Each structure stands twice: as C-alpha cells, then as structure tokens.
Amino acid sequence: MNSPLTTDVPAAGYVHGYSRREARRLGDQADTLATLLHSGTSYPPGSRVLEVGCGVGAQTVHLVTGSPGVRLVAVDLSDDSLAEARARVAAHAPQAHVEWCRADLFDLPFADATFDHVFVCFVLEHLPDPVRALAGLRRVLRPGGTVTVIEGDHGSAFFHPDSAWASAAVRCLVRLQAAAGGNALIGRELQPLLTAAGYRDVRVAPRTVYADPSRPELVRGFTRDTFVAMVEGVREEALAARLVSPEDWDRGLADLRRTAGPDGTFHYVFFKGLAVNPADGGACGE
Ligand SMILES: C[S@@+](CC[C@H](N)C(=O)[O-])C[C@H]1O[C@@H](n2cnc3c(N)ncnc32)[C@H](O)[C@@H]1O
Predict the structure, then answer these.
(1) Span from the CA of 123 to the centroid of ligand 1 (angstroms)
(2) Strands, E assignment, the chain
(3) Which residues' Cβ are closer than 6 Å to ligand 1?
(4) Structural domain includes residue 280
C-alpha cells in the first residue's frame, strides 16, 4: 500500500452532501437500524418534541411512528431536505402532527422552554462545536425535559476479511469530515459532551451492529447500503485532496465490499445518549 499522498486536507463543506444517492442512503440506514436505534425512545402523546437536523426525514418517520400523538417540530438547514422529509412523513406516517422549519440549530427561532424533548441523530458529528450546540438546545428545552442523541463512531468499524486498504479508505472519510469541522469518531465522546453542555443524569450506551451472511437484511441494509455506500460517497473528495492514490482507493473499496460478501462480516457501534435538562439551570459548559 502506498503511503498517504498528503497530510493537509483542505476544508470542505458538509461531507456527505445532499445528493439523491445520499438521501437514499439515509433512508436505508434509518430503516435498517430503526429497532436498534429507536428502541427505548417513546414520548407520551401530546409531548412537544424537537428534532434538529432532520435531513430527509429518515428518522422522523420512526420517531412519530414510535410516539403516536406527539407534536413534533423538525428543523434542518436544507430546504430541499425538508421538502423531501415532508413528503416522506406524509407517505409513511400521514397521521403524524409535524411542523417543518428551516433554521440553524445554533440560532433556533423558538422561545425558551418550548419543548419537552429534543432528538438529535447523526448531526453533532458534522458540527464544529457540539458542546455549544447541545448547550443551545437546553435553552428551548423545558427544565426536566430530555435530550436524546445518537451518533456513530467510525473507529468502531472492524471487519473480515481485514484489509489495510479498506481501513485506509475509512480513514479518508474520517479526515475529510475533520477537515469540514466535524468528528466521525464522536460517539465515544457523547457522555463528556453532554456533561460539558450542562445536562444531568447523562446515560450513554453502545448499540452494536454486527452483520454476517446469517443476517442478509443487515448485510444489505447496513454493511453495503449504509457503511460502504457512505465511504464510496467521498471518493472524489479523497482523491482531490490527494489522501490516497486512485489504485489504493479502488483496492480499499473492493476489500470493503468483500465484507458484505459470502465470507464477510462487519462490526460497528452506535452510541445513544439520554440526558436531562436540570431544573436548577445547571452549569453550562460553554
Ligand atoms: C447526516 S444528516 C442526518 C439526517 C437525519 N438526522 C438522519 O439521521 O437521517 C445531517 C443533517 O444535519 C443538518 N444540519 C447540519 N448542520 C445543521 C445546523 N447547524 N442546523 C440545522 N441542521 C443542520 C444537515 O443539513 C443534514 O440534513
């Protein structure tokens, strides 16, 4: 394997972008992992729930299905994603009560203590200052309300057949995300991040995905259509940043695809955190 071609990665935008392919990947991811990620999250009817960074509504559908009767407000920066989210929820959960709002989660247009619960999934990993984001969410959360945060951690990916080229391709994504201001290894940090943002009763637990040929749905839905597709999606950026040669990239992706093959296995850990906004205001770690 050739050594990396460069050590300086130019800053980029949102690493996964807003393509049709990425929208499909988010849907595959959410549907495949719905039970794993959403189990334990159920809000009473009538609760006021805020989802920030709803994207194309892939998690929103599972949120409102798992908590019928909630009044959900879903926020994202992207108008196109919000339009897609609205259509997805109308198709899959037409009874749901959802308001859609284009806003920056760092500058939310809601009064203090508007919500009983906040839900954040696969968003903090893209933010330059996740503690400031979490602390800001406390403003719109009522005292005693909860925040639920779900993030992955690409350092938890190991697989068979093992391959230095495949691992190097995954590291390209980690580096590109870091160059864009994010952190693809954030899952392991959720507990300290929530604590630093002033939440109390912080509980974080790993939710492990393990896929092998005895679980073909998971191999398709997670290994191939979620994880490998995500790495494939940064090919052009990785080559443009000269993080890897085209030959090594192609070898890495071929090896990564083998982990979804007849002799492949894949392991990954998501981290799910639940924490309470303290009634006494707490010490904010901004
Ligand atoms: C990886 S997607 C996750 C979408 C969705 N939560 C899911 O799991 O399918 C991250 C989303 O966060 C949104 N986002 C990023 N920064 C944001 C910000 N400052 N305010 C609001 N949304 C933001 C992006 O537009 C994108 O739709």
Answers:
(1) 5
(2) 48-52, 71-76, 97-102, 115-121, 141-152, 158-160, 200-211, 265-276
(3) 16, 26, 30, 52-55, 58-59, 75-78, 81, 104-106, 121-123, 126
(4) no
Look at residues 142, 133, 144 and name the one whose alpha carbon lies nearest to residue 190: 133
Residue 77: give the domain boundaries.
20-275
Cα 261 to its chain centre, rounded Å, is: 25
Atom of ligand 1 minimally distant from the CA of 150: 8
Question: In which residue are the tokens 């952190």 written?
Answer: 183
Catalogue the E-assigned strands of 14-140.
Answer: 48-52, 71-76, 97-102, 115-121
Total domains, the chain? 1
CA of 202 to the centre of ligand 1 (A): 23
Residues 60-118: tens digit of each pLDDT: 999 999 999 999 999 999 999 999 999 999 999 999 999 999 999 999 999 999 999 99
Q: Which residues pair with 147 in a beta bridge?
A: 118, 275
Assigned token pair, 256 = 């990564």
Q: Is residue 286 part of a domain?
A: no
- CATH number of the domain encompassing residue 25: 3.40.50.150
Query: Scanning the structure block, which residue is given the tokens 């994504």?
Result: 173
Q: Per the domain annotation, does 120 fall within a domain?
A: yes
The residue type found at 4 is: P
Question: pLDDT by residue (tens digit) across 23-52?
Answer: 888 888 888 999 999 999 999 999 999 999
Structural domain includes residue 25: yes
Map residue 179 onto helix, strand or coil. helix
256 CB-side CA count, 13 A: 25
Sequence-distant (6+) residues with CB within 8 A of 95 are 68
Contact (CB, 8 A) for 123 and 193:
no
Predicted model pTM: 0.93
